[in-house]
Fold this protein.
Amino acid sequence: MTAPSLSDAAWLTDPATRAVMAALAARGGPDAARFVGGCVRNSLLDRPVDDVDIATRLEPHEVMEALKTAGLKAVPTGLDHGTVTAVSDHRPFEITTLRRDVTTDGRRATVAFTGDWAEDAGRRDFHINALYADASGQVFDPTGQGLADIAARRVVFVGDPDRRIREDRLRILRFFRFQAWYGRGAPDPAGLAACVREADGLSELSAERVSKELLKLLAAPDPVPTVAIMAETGILQRLLPDVPGLEAFQALAKVSDDAVLRLSALMPPDAGARDRAARALRLSNRDRVRLVALAGPVPDLEQLGEPTVRAMVYADGRQATQDRLTLALAARPGQVERHRTLNKLVETWPIPRMPVGGREVAAMGVPPGPETGALLAAFEAGWIADDFPADGHAERLRALIDQRPG
């Protein structure tokens, strides 16, 4: 297959990128550095490029010196593993010396530096991630299969898949994540079989690494086929032991690309179980709170009045209310217009503040104490039930005070 060129890629021609490559070439010659991984893969697939990673024959101390000589900031982000971050025009570029693995334990690797591009490619996870491009945009395919896999939309391990997985157990989840984002059709049989064989190794991974990879997978445009395969093979149940079924997930994936919202459809409906699952995955507090807030029955949009929606926003906030409206739309996809109307209400309604407080209660002769709190709670409940009236607060409060026993 004729190697393509990425010479017109905006990220490659950017002056910030050129400055980094020029600095490395000045130290090690024109073949000192090549772009690698996601920027090359995504450009070939006509996908957005978020990060530009660079592989180099130069050793880390040489990279540091080359960048400083060129007037660029050099950050020693992982010298033991050969990684230096260059900062050019306020943008980071991760530069890693060509490597080969010496020892691995499924989570970490001890590496040795090399000057061999093929040896570096041989330790990468998938053929589509083992593609390189030089400063001119010329693409190199050391494994001889990366370009073909790009064309066929295949996700295939480099070399022996079992060995690749034993080097880093996270590659099981990366296999499914890349299949969801870049694969077409059924996953590679050898890779899938290896993932199943090595699945016990998932227990060796930190919860943070697992949850990060899982959320990336769920953010794919259509993760449903891949998640279904994970469920069929038992991989999904190792990550989420209480998956209630895939029907709600399949429906939600059609109406929302929010990874956390999609994850909620793979969790049990019970708030306590969700909280435990979120904590086991070491999700952020924000994501955990979102997931727990989505526990319970899903409302019917057509029967959901605007006063009720305003009460939901007041009690739970805009995010939680919008999440519940999206779940409701997934349950009844025909209610698109109603969803749009209510969602607009959630976005634009100015959330009011409680119009009375302890000062107003005291001014009406009630001494400070538990009774004040009870009166305010009763006032707020009635105020919400009446759809947040803007006036008449003193009268309402006086009526509650006068209704006190004794």
Observations:
- The two ends are 92 Å apart (CA to CA).
- The beta strands are 33-36, 53-56, 73-78, 83-88, 91-97, 99-104, 109-113, 132-133, 139-140.
- The chain has 22 helices and nine strands.
